[in-house]
Specification:
Strand order of the largest sheet: 6-7-8-3-9-10
Shape: globular
Strand content: 35-45%
Structural class: alpha+beta
Distance between the termini: 43 Å
Number of strands: 32
Length: 480
């Protein structure tokens, strides 16, 4: 039976541009009628592209968009009951406020008396009554933003799309407008789909948050779920601040990380590799003898409403937010209540890629010949005197019909700023500090992502080469 609560549904949406860049990859979402949904993620993650596909300004490469159960893929933007508010407002500077708001209604040949009533009603809604004859250039940024919203609302859309509409405002005005937008949504009862990279905006206003990264959905949930129960390391690191540590389950409701054994509420099999996530506000500083772990205060920063204190415990670093001050050099204990430790099963970040076999029967990747030949990979194969490689039955092997799946762990790859020295080159697209090392994602020229662990800090966007020792690789033969 059709779900009448669902106003819009995105089914397997992907968008690949002409240059081959995949901006959105297999995106699925159901939006309920009257819901406030926020697309949240870093720049370039596919938020705006997804919004533009809903609006009709972009056409999906794959998938479908359903509005009230009917596909709207072939419907042009002006025929969709959807309006968009852009970051730069796109107001007409040569028109006054009234004419800006009335523009869409006039395009629809709406009677003049009805236009007047509708414009006055939305001006009241955005708290700008009496501004009808004002020129756009005389308005503040916040007032212009309200006019842009009024112009969208006057058309009575079923869905209002907002593409980072508060991005041009100063911090104080942005916080005020967050609350006003939420109040407008509650008053109107229409569906809002909002795009932002600001976590506070998303947490403040949304009924549902869709966290995105590199074109893919990372997690969909309420603000409380997203903050308190992150499903991936990316979500934990992107939403708010987190201490993230590699660890292991050591028994029933017990986990070891950051050099100590902690009680927790997540129960996994003993020996399971895990990632432990602890929010800075959930760490308690105590005397050394009362702490689960002991460390030394490294630095203290006053943030106005709390102190941010960094404590070093061996190679690990724990960040704490507390109203109590501390002194660098102090030896302190740290403890965390069990319900404030969030456990994620550590993902298998083994890097996989395919190598071809060249005419010399050597493995080759990215035009780089590995010091490994087919006979070392293919059990029972051998090389004849004429150089031909044959299988165990003595049949000659055609190298272009085979390839090899290569596996290498993140700890076994080394980054170098000498790009030409690496088997493959790329740039750092993401990094997470995990207590005693950094976990990097390297996006390569071959559109292949590699995970690399390194104890040293590199910068986002750094161009690097990847050194991969062949004695650390494992090989599996595959037929094309």
């Amino acid at each position: 039976m059709e779900n009448t609560d669902t106003i819009i549904e995105l089914k397997g949406i992907s968008k690949v541009f002409e240059d081959g860049f995949k901006a959105v990859d297999n995106f699925n979402l159901q939006v309920k009628r009257g819901e406030f949904v926020t697309f949240l993620g870093p720049s370039g993650c596919g938020k705006t592209t997804t919004l533009r596909m809903i609006a009709g300004f972009e056409v999906p490469t794959e998938g479908d968009i359903l509005l009230n159960g009917e596909s709207i893929i072939g419907l042009p933007p002006y025929m969709r009951p959807i309006n968009t508010v852009f970051q730069r407002y796109a107001l007409f500077p040569h028109m006054n406020v009234f004419d800006n708001i009335a523009f869409g209604l006039r395009q629809k040949k709406t009677p003049s008396d009805l236009i007047g009533k509708k414009v006055r009603r939305v001006l009241e809604l955005v708290d700008l009554e009496g501004f009808e004859n004002r020129r756009i250039k005389t308005l503040s940024g916040g007032q212009q933003q309200r006019i842009a919203i009024a112009r969208a609302l006057v058309n009575e859309p079923e869905i209002l799309l907002l593409d980072e509409p508060l991005g041009a405002l100063d911090l104080k005005m942005r916080k005020e407008m967050q609350l006003e937008l939420k109040e407008m949504h509650d008053t109107l009862g229409i569906t809002f789909i909002y795009v932002t990279h600001d976590q506070e905006e998303a947490l403040t206003m949304s009924d549902k948050i869709v966290v995105m990264n590199e074109g893919c959905t990372q997690q969909i949930g309420t603000p409380e779920d997203i903050y308190n129960e992150p499903e991936t390391i990316f979500v934990a690191d992107f939403i708010g601040e987190s201490n993230i540590f590699n660890g292991m389950m050591t028994g029933h409701l017990k986990a070891r990380f950051c050099g100590g054994e902690f009680d927790c509420v997540d129960d996994y099999k003993e020996g399971t590799h895990i990632t432990a996530i602890v929010r800075p506000e959930d760490v308690v500083i105590t005397s050394p003898e009362r702490g689960t772990i002991v460390g030394v205060v490294d630095k203290v920063i006053f943030k106005g409403i709390h102190y941010e204190i960094t404590v070093l415990s061996g190679k690990n670093e724990m960040v704490i937010q507390t109203v109590k001050n501390a002194t660098p050099g102090d030896r302190v204990g740290l403890r965390v209540d069990p319900e404030n430790i969030h456990i994620i099963i550590a993902p298998d970040h083994t890097n996989l890629f395919y190598a071809d076999i060249n005419q010399n029967y050597k493995l080759e990747y990215n035009e780089h010949e590995l010091d490994k030949n087919l006979t070392e990979v293919m059990r029972g194969s051998s090389r004849r005197d004429d150089g031909t490689v044959v299988d165990s039955a003595g049949q000659a092997i055609e190298p272009d019909r085979l390839r090899v799946l290569v596996a290498i762990k993140p700890d076994d790859i080394e980054m170098t700023d000498d790009q030409e020295a690496g088997i493959v080159q790329g740039w750092i697209s993401n990094l997470v500090y995990k207590g005693d090392h950094y976990s990097y994602i390297i996006h390569t020229d071959l559109e292949q992502d590699f995970v690399v662990n390194d104890e040293y800090l590199w910068n986002m966007g750094d161009q690097v080469g990847l050194l991969m020792p062949e004695d650390k690789m494992t090989f599996t033969l595959k037929r094309k």
